[in-house]
Amino acid sequence: MVDDTDLTHLHRCVALARAALEAGDEPFGSVLVAADGTVLVEDTNHVAGGDATRHPEFAIARWAAEHLSPAERAAATVYTSGEHCPMCAAAHGWVGLGRIVHAASAAQLAGWLAELGVPPAPVRPLPVRDVAPGVPVEGPVPGLDEEVRALHRRYHRGG
Ligand SMILES: [Zn+2]
User: Distance from the CA of 43 to the center of ligand 1, in angstroms?
Assistant: First the structure.
């Protein structure tokens, strides 16, 4: 269940996604939050430079592996504007991170991009549960998902 604390972090993810868009990158933003509520990492997509693996959730998984104990990782939550792709879901699962809360789902995004005429991504939009079945996942969140949709429309349509 998504509570007010979760919504606060998700709003921040959407703001980060908007900042990425305004910086010329794809609109994705994520935050890593410790069990005590401390925001540990904020990141956005950095794929505009040509490396399509520079997703925030992947960077967060690698940061967590380097800086957190296994117990701290399992108790942490990753909030994200868009559900992890399979690469990021796998990284999340491999390093033993905990709950994921996303504003928009991978299936929603795939549908929205298809509507915009964007060619299919080279990686299938599998839900996290199909890649890392032990990870608790919540989302999409009505209202916030529409904000994410608007950002992707702006990115692909320039308005
Ligand atoms: Zn990803």
Answer: 12
Query: Could you give the C-alpha distances from 38 to 28, 32, 89, 91, 150, in angstroms and in order?
Result: 21, 9, 22, 22, 29
Q: Phi, psi (5° rounding) for residue 89?
A: -65, -40
Q: pLDDT tens for residues 19-58?
A: 999 999 999 999 999 999 999 999 999 999 999 999 999 9
How far is it, in rounded angstroms, from Cα 101 to Cα 19?
A: 20
Residue with tokens 């991009």: 113
pLDDT tens sequence across 73-124: 999 999 999 999 999 999 999 999 999 999 999 999 999 999 999 999 999 9
User: 139 φ, ψ to 5°?
Assistant: 135, 170
Q: Judging by DSSP bridges, how do beta strands 39-44 and 29-33 pair with one another?
A: antiparallel
Residue 37 CA to ligand 1 centre (angstroms): 24
Q: CA 135 to CA 111: how far, in whole Å? A: 24
Give 158 Cα–ligand 1 centroid separation in angstroms.
Answer: 23
